[in-house]
Write a structure and sequence with these properties.
It contains 4 helices and 9 strands; from the N terminus they run H-E-H-E-E-E-E-E-H-E-H-E-E. It is α/β, with parallel strands linked by helices. Strand 1, helix 2 and strand 2 form a beta-alpha-beta unit. 30% of the residues are buried.
Length: 178
């Protein structure tokens, strides 16, 4: 989630076995083109699917705020004190719109880096998990912008049956307890 040019999606596609699928969520039209190019260059069109939307807590549209030419820092959340350099109206969808098929896979990994909007995407999933909703087996969550969250998302993840196994370079890796 927040696939950018495929820094995670392409290596995962290359390393995964037959029958594996990678779904790369990227809302930025410029980056969708670059991501598609990188997927094709690596002969992964049969394994990696691009969803050209921003994941959010609802279906609709939102402004994706750009910060200079670093499209990896684009966010649905405007950051006070940081200069925005335009944006694009992008479609938004909830993560739950995509999780039904994930229930049928042996192992699922969710990687999310959405520049401060992580709780907007993950909180509905964590809420639904309380009543039998889907949870991935592992999550790599960018926590660098936790100061922008309204709640303690890391604590919510831990309370949803995960253990933190690593925290480095602004990311935390959570593995579902068995």
């Amino acid at each position: 989630i927040g696939a950018n040019c495929g820094v995670y999606s392409v290596p995962l596609g290359l390393a995964s076995g037959d029958g594996s699928r990678v779904i790369a969520f990227e809302p930025n039209p410029t980056m969708i083109g670059r991501l598609g190019h990188n997927i094709a260059l690596n002969n992964l069109t049969h394994k990696v699917r691009i969803e050209g939307c921003a994941l959010s807590d609802r279906e609709g549209e939102a402004i994706l705020n750009f910060r200079g030419h670093n499209y990896g820092q684009a966010s649905l959340i405007p950051v006070p004190g940081r200069m925005n350099s335009g944006g694009a109206l992008v479609p938004t969808r909830p993560l739950s719109a995509f999780t039904h098929a994930a229930r049928h896979h042996d192992f699922t990994v969710l990687k999310i880096d959405v520049e401060g909007a992580e709780e907007v995407v993950l909180n509905p999933m964590l809420d639904q998990a309380k009543v039998g909703g889907w949870l991935p087996d592992a999550m790599l969550v960018e926590v660098r912008h936790a100061d922008q969250w309204d709640s303690d998302l890391c604590a919510r993840i831990l309370n949803s049956g995960f253990r933190q196994t690593m925290r480095a370079e602004g990311n935390a890796l959570y593995i579902k307890k068995r």
